[in-house]
From TrEMBL:
Residues covered by region (Disordered): 653-675
Polar residues compositional bias, start-end: 654-664
Highest taxon, organism lineage: Archaea
Stated name of the protein: Hydantoinase/oxoprolinase
Organism: Methanosalsum zhilinae (strain DSM 4017 / NBRC 107636 / OCM 62 / WeN5)
GO cellular component: cytosol
MF annotations from Gene Ontology: 5-oxoprolinase (ATP-hydrolyzing) activity
Domain Hydantoinase A/oxoprolinase: 179-311
Ranges of residues in domain Hydantoinase/oxoprolinase N-terminal: 5-158
SUPFAM superfamilies the UniProt entry points to: Actin-like ATPase domain (SSF53067)
Length: 675
């Protein structure tokens, strides 16, 4: 019997399961709260609830997490600097630290401009090094020739020991903007993912768990932890991907849609005939288009811990807060404070926003002392006023002597920088009031509901029912939108709001995963007509999925004439650009490169080529005269070091093909720059 330990760290819970890999049966499971910023405590608590006799026999550990997704959705990635080479700065790039320098290449990999003066780059690096946690570099057509990216990377590494991410290292696809965003998000997520992985390794060492450690990527495949640390952006949808794979395993359904209701977001994805549906384009998260190969997914920033706040009317999200009910279970004095708030005169609606709320509390979080040096005087003053004890808006005003209007923006800044945590009313609190989900201190939830309901002229039960229905409505709307992707979401919303007797029929089974999902089942069925399932172990579905993934590796090679009318051919691949005198030589090199890189990659996982399903596809684009304009070679390998059954592998491989490739392969684009 081979045992595996699956761990999923989400925005709210850290789940763990022990599974018999050979039979797929779950032997034990446990949930605990995710702890910030020190994830170790939450992971320890989750694992400590498992049978120690089984833990001793674990030989494989796999993990997944929604931390990268939630970090991006909430805009809380660590600050990173961006160096763009050869093109102007796009509007809305998610960083304040960005520069564009001369350089870049053309579609054939030839230099179009000399790289800028190194002193310009050095000055920018020195200016940013104490303001950021990592650097990202992206050059125009860097995938056709990464020379300038590598030179800039070397300059940065000579000046600082911070991580440096290059666009060509993450994707071979065209699209300068998407590649730059992918590199930047990856840089912002490196500290988040590193903290998570180091926490897992630390707990494994303390618990004497000697096993291989792997992590689920956002396409439903597994990678070694070393690779996950280098490319954390590929874990952006790790949690939802694990949820999808886990839902299929728990229900034995090979075709279904999965709704994963977490603390920060609700994610919808699907698989067909046992194969996760992969997005034709790169993953889009938090409004950012990337080049990350991921499951096709609809995600919304509404979950069990979304902030419920009022200002003339009830609103939910998009930020996540710590539920009142949970905090009151740790700090009973919060109940007394809520009682006092209820008796006191209300906060004026004119100054209320997402931060300034009558039931908002704030606590100081543990943070890196080095980051405290980057705070301004106003931020330091507010931070000094806070401690481990939850303080209300009125209490902070009393300590600092400032009106809430003077420090609301400061609180928001400190939350984003992870120096403080925000406590407030959530859908989880609403479920506690309605007795649909009771785990912590319901008294705090009741008081919070009463206080907020008064502002919008509702009673607490009506207020909580409204919140519950809004969450269920959001799930239903996103389900329909996921299926009817060509219909505008606003039109779907109008139909759902204005037609009380209208129900939407789904022909594909829907599987609900996540701690509170049972509470929304009936509300969801009132809108959706179809098979909706809540399986056993639904609350730890992500941890299950982390154990049943496979090793997947893709390798692309592009072959094009070196220039118009040239008899030479250029080969573009992960190793860089190569030029050959004959087309046949270029093709032979491309095929050999894919085979060699595939064998090397799979061998690093203990898999020989005869133990994987390998497929090599060739796509030729020819002119009217029959000459080759472009040849694309795509190799895909899939296998599992844990299972001998290759049926899933075969079906997955049959479902993939050239349509998954990035970049344009039309004759019109052969000489056109779309980077």
């Amino acid at each position: 019997m081979s045992l595996g330990l699956g761990i999923d760290t989400g925005g709210t819970y850290t789940d763990s399961v022990i599974m018999d890999i050979s039979s797929g049966s779950i032997l034990d499971s446990n949930k605990s709260l995710t702890t910030y910023p020190d994830l170790i405590t939450g992971i320890q608590n989750s694992i400590d609830g498992l049978d120690t006799r089984l833990l001793e026999k674990v030989t494989n550990v796999s993990v997944s997490t929604t931390l990268a997704t939630n970090t991006t959705l909430e805009g809380k990635g660590y600050p990173a600097a961006m160096i763009l080479i050869g093109y102007s700065i796009p509007k809305g790039l998610p960083t304040q630290h960005v520069i564009s320098v001369k350089g870049g290449h053309d579609a054939d990999g030839y230099e179009i401009d000399d790289l800028d003066d190194p002193e310009v780059i050095k000055d920018f690096v020195m200016y940013c090094k104490n303001k950021v946690a990592a650097f990202a570099v992206s050059s125009y057509f860097g995938v056709r020739n990464p020379d300038h990216e590598l030179k800039v990377k070397k300059i940065i590494q000579d000046l600082t020991d911070m991580p440096v991410v290059c666009g060509h290292e993450l994707s071979q696809g065209l699209g300068a903007y998407e590649r730059s965003v992918t590199a930047l998000l990856n840089a912002q997520l490196i500290p988040v993912t590193n903290q998570f992985i180091q926490s897992i390794l630390s707990v494994m060492k303390e618990r004497h768990i000697s096993a291989n450690l792997m992590m689920m990527k956002c396409d439903g495949s597994l990678v070694k932890i070393e690779e996950a640390l280098e490319k954390p952006v590929e874990s952006i949808f790790s949690g939802p991907a694990a949820s999808l794979v886990g839902a299929a395993h728990l229900t034995k359904l090979d075709t279904c849609m999965t709704v994963d209701v977490g603390g920060t977001s609700t994610d919808i994805s699907s698989l067909s005939e046992g194969i996760p549906i992969i997005s034709d384009s790169g993953a889009v998260v938090g409004g950012w288009s990337t080049m990350v190969k991921a499951i096709k997914m609809n995600t919304s920033a509404m979950g069990g811990d979304s902030h419920v706040w009022v200002q003339w009317k009830p609103s939910i999200g998009p930020g996540r807060v710590i539920p009142l009910c949970y905090v009151a279970s740790q700090h009973p004095e919060v109940v007394d404070k809520l009682e006092k708030i209820k008796e006191d005169r209300k906060i004026s609606e004119r100054i209320m926003d997402r931060i300034i709320q009558p039931v908002s509390f704030f606590v100081r979080s543990e943070s890196d002392p080095r980051t405290l040096e980057r705070l301004n005087d106003n931020e330091k003053e507010i931070l000094d006023a806070l401690s481990d004890e939850p303080l209300s808006i009125k209490e902070i005003a009393g300590i600092t002597g400032h009106h809430p209007l003077m420090f609301g923006n400061i609180l928001e800044s400190l939350i984003q920088k992870r120096h403080i945590s925000h406590i407030g009313f959530t859908p989880t609190d609403a479920l506690h009031v309605l007795q649909d989900y009771e785990k912590w201190n319901s008294e705090a939830s009741h008081l919070g509901a009463e206080i907020l309901a008064e502002y919008v002229k509702m009673d607490k039960l009506s207020f909580c029912t409204h919140v519950k229905k809004k969450v269920a409505f959001n799930i239903a709307q996103n389900l329909v939108s996921f299926v009817a992707e060509d219909v505008k979401k606003e039109e779907i919303e109008k139909l759902m709001q204005n037609s009380e007797n209208l129900r939407f029929r789904l022909n594909v089974p829907v599987v609900l995963i996540g701690a509170p999902v049972e509470a929304f089942l009936e509300e969801l069925k009132s809108v959706i007509d179809g098979e909706i399932t809540v399986p056993e172990y639904y609350d730890v579905g992500n941890a299950v999925g982390a154990l049943v993934g496979n090793i997947i590796h893709r390798s692309d090679v592009l072959i094009r004439p070196s220039a118009a009318g040239s008899s030479q051919y250029s080969v573009f691949c992960e190793a860089g650009k190569m030029v050959f005198d004959e087309y046949g030589q270029a093709v032979d090199y491309g095929i050999k490169f894919i085979n060699d890189s595939m064998a090397e990659y799979m061998n690093s996982y203990g898999l020989s080529m005869d133990r994987i399903q390998f497929d090599l596809k060739r796509d030729d684009i020819k002119s009217e005269t029959g000459s080759v304009i472009e040849t694309r070679l795509t190799g895909v390998g899939i296998g599992s070091p844990r299972r001998s059954d290759n049926e899933w592998v075969k079906r997955w491989n049959e479902s993939t093909g050239p349509n998954e490739q990035h970049g344009c392969s039309s004759p019109e684009c052969a000489g056109k720059d779309r980077d």
